[in-house]
Every structure is written in structure tokens, then in C-alpha cells.
Structure prediction request, 309 residues.
Amino acid sequence: MPINRINPSTAMRSASLKFYLICLLVICVIGWSAGAPSPQLSRKELEDRYRQKPPVPDERDADAELDSAYDRNTRRP
Amino acid sequence: MTALGLVLLSMMGYSQHMQQANLGDGVATARLLSRSDWGARLPKSVEHFQGPAPYVIIHHSYMPAVCYSTPDCMKSMRDMQDFHQLERGWNDIGYSFGIGGDGMIYTGRGFNVIGAHAPKYNDKSVGIVLIGDWRTELPPKQMLDAAKNLIAFGVFKGYIDPAYKLLGHRQVRDTECPGGRLFAEISSWPHFTHINDTEGVSSTTAPVVPHVHPQAAAPQKPHQSPPAAPKV
Prediction:
């Protein structure tokens, strides 16, 4: 009865396949997390946040439709 | 129509202090609605600017879409205020006035109040939003007439400079607002002005930022029922 020996080339292909599958899994996880919508605040949470926020002292450069007062420090120039 | 609009608006005794606009007969009260009429939330802060406004800036809401009944238009005003306050964090609805598809004028911040609708113009302009998406469709006649009447009223009362300049939002900001069709319309109105470099602001000929925002979050609690629509 011939002895079954592990073929080095077969072992190499199996290792490569595992590596590629792991890479693919990582890519999928990253893509999913990037595309996942950030949890939206409920209306009550929005109202609470707004209530706690001080008034905007100067709105002369504001555009309420396109800009956010919450991100005012990061607005584009 | 403009003269009639002036008379009707004058009959209401428009007040800078946003009093209930129930003066005059039923027809008069149908023209201009106060903040309390549409159920506005109180502003966090109010800051005024001096003198008649030298600019009138026209906007479209894009969303909410056009409304044709007064209760729906009241809700649209509340939705816009919710978006500007709760989601964007500003002190109040950014516009001075809103115009509904019902032909009514809805008081936003009002005259001589610094707005939040057009950077660098907020302390010298009246911002008027025509509720709806006017990129490809022209607003109905009653909306256009109401906007013209409001401007004429502002001039008559001294809130708007008689030599005012009429602008579209896209002329002062990189945006599609007030929509191509409406912008084409106001371009033919009296006092429409092309801004050039000599005035310090370049006009935008190719806006690249669509005027799009998500629908305001659905309320967890029902609003108190809006006041009955004014008799027309």
C-alpha cells in the first residue's frame, strides 16, 4: 500500500488560499464599516442636544441649509 | 395685484415684534402669517441690523416639496425650522420669510433680523424662501405674486431699501439654489442684479453643490394641531 505523502505544492496553494480569504474578509469588514450609516439621533436626542447648546453668537457667515453650527470649526474657508 | 397686496399687508399692521397677524378682515389675515400661526419654536437668540435692507435674496427649499394647503405649508415651515435648529444647530430658521404654494407669506426671522441663509449677506438682506423644488418647474403664480408683494410691502414700510438689489442664493454661494427655473424667473424681475468682482463677490456661473439635505427626522411626538387655516 503506497504511503500518502503531503505534496509541498499542494500545501503551498492551501496556505495562499487561506491568506487571500483572510485578506478578502478584512476588506469586506472595512468596506462594511465605512459604508454603514452612523446611527441617527432620535428626535428627542436632537432636541436635548439643541437645548444644551448655547446660542450661536454670530450668524453673519451662516447658511442654515448648507452649513452646520455643530461643525463650525471645521467649515471650509 | 401689487397695489392690492400692499393695501392688504398694510391693513394687517405688520409688527416687528411678531404679533399675531389677526388684524383686519379675513382676507387680510390670509396674506401674512405670524410665527405663532405656524407653530414656530422660540429662537435661541435674535440679533437685529440697522436700516432698510439693501439686498433681497431668493431661495428654494428643495425639500420640503411644494405645499398647497395652509396646514401643509405650516408643517413645511416647522420642518425647515427643525432642520435648521435641531440638525444644523442654528438659532432659528435661517430665512426671513417663507412663501407657500397656498400663496401665504410665513414669517421666519422677519425684517431687520440677522438671518442665516446667505453668508456675508445675512446682516444686510431679506431672505425669502419659496417652498418647493424649483429647478425645472416654475412656482405657481400665487407664490410669485406673494413674493413680489412681500418685497413691495418691505419697501413701502421702509424695511427694504427702495434701491435694493435682488439676488438668487447661487449668486452669493456655490449652490444650485434657488433652482434653475426660479432663478431664470427672478432674473427678469425689477432690481435683479448681476454681481461682479467690483462688488467684492463673484457670481457663480456653474454651481457644483446641489442644494440637497435629508428630510428632517420624524417627530416622536405628534405636534399640537396647527391653528385653523385663515379664512380666505
Remarks:
- Helices of chain B lie at 2-11, 26-29, 35-38, 70-87, 141-157, 180-186.
- Residues 10-30, 197-232 of chain B have pLDDT under 50 and may be disordered.
- Residues 32-39+51-194 of chain B form a domain with the Lysozyme-like fold (CATH 3.40.80.10).
